[in-house]
Amino acid sequence: MDDENPCVGICIIGEDGYCEGCGRSEDEIYGTPPAPAPTPASTPAQTGADGKAA
C-alpha cells in the first residue's frame, strides 16, 4: 500500500455505493468508464473504379 492509495484490502461495495474498507465510491476506485465510441449513422455506398455504386 502506498500513501496515495487508501485501500486496506477489504473491497466490498456496500448498498450505499461506497467501499466498506476505504470509504471510496466505485468511481473513485475504478474511475469513470470511457464513453462508448460513436457509431456512424450510415455507411456511404461503396463505389467501383468508375465512380458508380457497386
From TrEMBL:
Top-level taxon of the source organism: Bacteria
InterPro entries linked: DUF1289
Ranges where the record places region Disordered: 23-54
One matching Pfam family: DUF1289
Protein name: DUF1289 domain-containing protein
